[in-house]
Design goal:
binds manganese (II) ion; about 20% strand; binds phosphoenolpyruvate; Alpha-Beta Plaits; alpha/beta
Length: about 375
């Protein structure tokens, strides 16, 4: 096992941990982990547990080396760094909210939705072009043409986007179009898709299958990590249960559990868990309070006109309220919502855009006017 010491542990604290572990009958060695302070514990007697060692003072985390998911567990030992989708940052003290329609339909609707979520403070967009529907009779998505609409809308508002891929053959087709790849719940164990998507080198948003336990979830992430791609964001979106009052049962406990075991960011999809727009804000707030590094939320200004997940879409107004709640909750534990509210305007009253999105109009690379970028806070 590796013990990661609290960042503020001094040399005498380190010695105290070492002595305590040795008193418990294990051998303690040194291990180099960049700037992290760590100790290697060899417990020949096999008596020590992760739980027991975690209770020692000055111990931040204990990482078992015999974990079935060594790469996911190993990510804990890296510096805590966020996964970046353009300017959107997930983890490492940063919280970003992804928002947009379930599926990409009418371009004018898309324009209204993307402007609304940008103005409310979303850090990234979502929208499905390749939909995975339980019924073959349900709308299957607009394919590549729809994706070009989402890309145009993304560049128009200056926010990057995630979109779901469902087949390894799509990866090459969309390589120059997408910012990040969503692997949906039903494809969590589509290993050829995971491996092909990893080759893109773009952030992967991996959703938990509705019947997967957390070990299976991490093993799926392990496929991507083993392919040498580290930018994986885990997404809890609810699991099957006996209950009917929600579409899926959101596993809030998964958030702190995963945070203790892996260094990958974890975000939550309250929309597919709730199945009903009235339940979404409560689940979203619970997720942020439990430590989630972000949310992915479905928003539609005219849900009566959509063919996909109309009941669970938040109105733009409800989404703006939720963003206010997210900012309040995140401030409580000293984390930061991305983007910061644009109070920080320059002398001319302009907000300064931070990152160039490939294919964005020039405006995005420089400054936007306060009017086009001010967010309600
Ligand atoms: C979605 O995000 O559009 C979606 C279908 O979600 P899930 O894969 O979690 O069902
Ligand atoms: Mn949906």
């Amino acid at each position: 096992m590796i013990i990661l010491l609290s960042p503020d542990a001094g040399p005498s604290d380190r010695d105290a941990v070492r002595a305590a572990v040795e008193r418990l009958g294990a051998t303690v060695g040194e291990v180099e982990l960049g700037s992290r302070q760590a100790l290697l514990v060899e417990d020949a007697g096999g008596r020590l547990t992760v739980g027991a060692l975690s209770r020692l003072p000055h111990v931040q985390r204990v990482v078992p080396l015999d974990s079935g998911t060594p790469l996911a567990a190993g990510s804990l030992t890296r510096e805590r760094r966020p996964v970046a989708l353009g300017p959107a940052l997930f983890g490492g003290g940063h919280v970003s909210v992804i928002a947009g329609p379930c599926t990409i339909e009418d371009p004018e609707h898309l324009r209204v939705i993307t402007h609304a979520v940008r103005d409310a403070g979303a850090a990234a967009l979502r929208g499905g072009a390749f939909k995975v529907r339980t019924s073959p009779h349900a709308y299957q998505g607009g394919g590549l043409e729809a994706l070009t609409h989402l890309r145009a809308a993304s560049r128009d508002v200056g926010l990057p986007f995630f979109t779901e891929l469902t087949d390894p053959r799509q990866v090459e087709q969309v390589a120059d179009l997408v910012d990040g790849v969503q692997i949906g719940a039903r494809h969590m164990q589509n290993f050829p898709l995971l491996l092909e998507a990893a080759k893109l080198g773009k952030p992967i948003l991996l959703k938990r299958h509705m019947a997967a336990d957390l070990e299976e979830f991490l093993l799926a992430a392990e496929y991507v990590l083993q392919a040498g791609h580290e930018d994986v964001i885990l997404c809890e979106r609810g699991i099957k249960s006996a209950e009917r009052h929600v579409r899926y049962m959101l596993d809030i406990g998964a958030i702190p559990w995963l945070k203790q075991r892996v260094g990958l960011p974890i975000i939550v999809d309250p929309s597919h868990a709730a199945g009903h727009h009235e339940l979404v804000p409560g689940l979203a707030r619970a997720a942020i309070a439990a430590g989630a590094d972000g949310l992915i939320v479905e928003v539609h200004h005219a849900p009566e006109a959509t063919r996909c997940d109309a009941l669970q879409a938040l109105s733009p107004g409800a989404f703006a309220e939720l963003m206010n709640d997210v900012r309040s909750l995140v401030a409580l534990d000293g984390r930061r919502v991305v983007p910061a509210p644009l109070h920080a305007l320059d002398g001319e009253g302009n907000g300064v855009a931070r990152v160039r999105l490939a294919g964005a109009p020039g405006r995005i690379d420089g400054q936007h006017t306060a009017a086009s970028s001010r967010r309600s806070v």
